[in-house]
Amino acid sequence: MSTPWTPARILVCLGLLVAGWLAGTAGWLVVDVWFPGGLVLALLALWGVFLAGRLLTGTALGVGAAVLGWFLAYVVLSLPRSEGDFLLSPAAISMYVYLLGGTALAVMCATLQLPPDRPVSATRSGR
Fold it and tell me: Which 3 state secondary structure label does DSSP give 127?
């Protein structure tokens, strides 16, 4: 069963893409600078964006939009600049933990089972 694409759903997905990009950029900047507190802060921000994507859309599509924004920010910021150096070192162990932790959070949020639309009583059958 798929849900229809409405203008509101498209706007939510685009907003989640931008939120993922912003969380990825902020995470990239604080992971190495404030280790290990920055790593925890960055992963908590990612968890919030991914969970918001799941709750706002009700499907894994919202998580996918946020993950795409986060991963694009990660890739773009890890490219060397024209001067030949990097913005921050992408080879530090904290960056690998950030990438692996963000991926684990994305999988957890995408596979999260949401509660049913209506409460189910234990005394009455669901018919």
Answer: coil
Q: Report pTM.
A: 0.81
Q: CA-CA distance, 69 to 52, in Å (whole number)?
A: 14
Q: Cα–Cα distance between 79 and 67 in angstroms, integer?
A: 19
How high is the pLDDT of residue 1?
Answer: 44
Q: Single out the residue of 92, 106, 3, 2 nearest to residue 47, CA to CA.
A: 106
Distance CA 81, CA 12 (A): 32
pLDDT in tens, 87-120: 666 667 888 899 999 999 999 999 988 776 655 5
Cβ neighbours of residue 33 under 8 Å, at least 6 residues apart?
88
Cβ-Cβ contacts under 8 Å for 42 (sequence gap 6 or more): 23, 26, 27, 28, 30, 31, 98
Joined tokens for residue 99: 């990438």
pLDDT the model gives residue 124: 57
